[in-house]
Amino acid sequence: MVNDAVVENVVEFDAFDLEHRANPYPRYRVLRETAPFCPVRLGAARVTVATTYAGCAAVLQGSEWGRGYADGLNPFRPGVAPGEVPGGSFLGMDPPDHTRLRALVSRAFTPRASLAETPFVRLVVDRLVAAAVDDGGLDVVAGLARPLSVAVMCRLLGVPVADAPSFLGWIQGIARGTDPDYLLSPADIVVRTACARDLGRYLFELVTVRRVAPRDDLVSRLVAIQRDQDVLTEVEIVELCALLLAAGLDTTANLVTNGVLALLRHPDQLELLRERPELMPAAVDEMLRYDPPSQFVTRVALADTTVGGQSFRRGDGVVVLSAAGHRDPAAFPDPDRFDVTRYAASPPARRHLGFALGLHYCLGAPLARIQAEAAIGTLLSRAGELRLATEDVEYRPNAALRGPASLLVNIKGDS
Ligand code: HEM
């Protein structure tokens, strides 16, 4: 997976060891200080990790980089046959297929459509935060972040909230499976396949129902595009909806949870944000930089190429470790400091890679921001004193879509 010239400097520790899930940043630092494109040994596999901001950004934006499934090049999913795309979604495609499908979804899921969800988001957040204040505490994951993202995604797609218990399990199996295969157990891979199949069946039934009785939701809009313009297949609609559900649930929930955790661990920043709520959009950007829900994405060299003086052969895979790039002192002054004013400065700080860059830039970024701003802003304004119930935060095993399994917080009095 890496060319011979760099193999000698292989870092011997497992950079994504589960034991370091709660705080992977010291290990990321070792990788960055070893090399901008750092060879890493993981069991039998060797991969290259992009560790600097410049290296991550260059790979994300380089036209020689992509998924490589069409030609069977992707080394992160070695079992996938050439031409097959895992999940079938455009997240796993390169142009021109990616361009066509992304354009179709963008027409049905615009930033304006996301903005229109703001009143609904506020309503859900108000209800959840009021319950937490009454209870004198909450699990931020189970009591705020997850139910919010579930309610929003269900409304957007037109999926009944009552079905959440089934599809949440499937989504979690799929989210775990977004880690490269060498980080997964055989059981994880079996679960990923079963979850993708069950979610697909469920969404197929939903598409059939919406075809007969359309509503004002994304599934119905995609069905209408298919009927009127004959540019989408039924299978593609199901795959697009599965992608949106899988991409929009855990990521957004992790942003809210990681954001609350960062504030509770930096009480001066929490107080500053309470005093100056207008800083909330900038604070959300800082949360995405400081402790991003998407720690890394993967890319494959589609042709022989050179980045930052490092050459790659067609088919070489790179882990774009944005979370390490975000702590790169060459890109962000004092990068280990959590500073809710960092993105309020004019001119703004260098953009973070939390939603990626380039062709695959996150389509749900506006919707994720709306939810994070509302959830964290309302919690700060309505709850009195907020404290971590325990410093010992347990993380789920996911390396790429990283986040706590739960986050227990005590609330004392109304503010
Ligand atoms: C792509 C992060 C929320 C839909 C991406 C990518 C990242 C990302 C890093 C690029 C993946 C890659 O290049 O391999 C996030 C984060 C979120 C979030 C951190 C929340 C904080 C959402 C939401 C939705 C969504 C709410 C939908 C409602 C998508 C889609 C893509 C994508 C459809 C694929 C874009 C493409 O391949 O062209 N997201 N996302 N995301 N995201 Fe998000």
3D architecture notes:
Helix 6 (118-135) runs parallel beside helix 16 (365-382), helix 7 packs antiparallel against helix 11 and helix 12 (250-265) packs parallel to helix 16 (365-382). The chain has a domain at 1-85 and 295-353: Uridine Diphospho-n-acetylenolpyruvylglucosamine Reductase, domain 2. The protein is α+β, with helices and mostly antiparallel strands and 415 residues long. A hairpin with a 2-residue loop joins strand 1 (37-42) and strand 2 (45-50). The protein has helices at 4-7, 25-34, 53-61, 97-108, 111-115, 118-135, 140-157, 164-176, 186-212, 218-229, 234-248, 250-265, 267-275, 280-290, 322-325, 365-382; strands at 37-42, 45-50, 65-66, 137-139, 297-301, 305-307, 310-312, 317-320, 383-388, 408-414. A 5-stranded mixed β-sheet has the order 1-2-8-5-3. A 3-stranded antiparallel β-sheet has the order 4-10-9. A two-stranded antiparallel ribbon has the order 6-7. The structure holds protoporphyrin IX containing FE (HEM). The site of protoporphyrin IX containing FE has 22 residues, from helix 11, helix 12 and helix 16.
Please give the structural blueprint.
Elements: H1 4-7, H2 25-34, E1 37-42, E2 45-50, H3 53-61, E3 65-66, H4 97-108, H5 111-115, H6 118-135, E4 137-139, H7 140-157, H8 164-176, H9 186-212, H10 218-229, H11 234-248, H12 250-265, H13 267-275, H14 280-290, E5 297-301, E6 305-307, E7 310-312, E8 317-320, H15 322-325, H16 365-382, E9 383-388, E10 408-414
Helix pairs in contact: 6-7, 6-16, 7-11, 7-12, 8-9, 9-10, 9-11, 12-14, 12-16
The structure holds protoporphyrin IX containing FE.
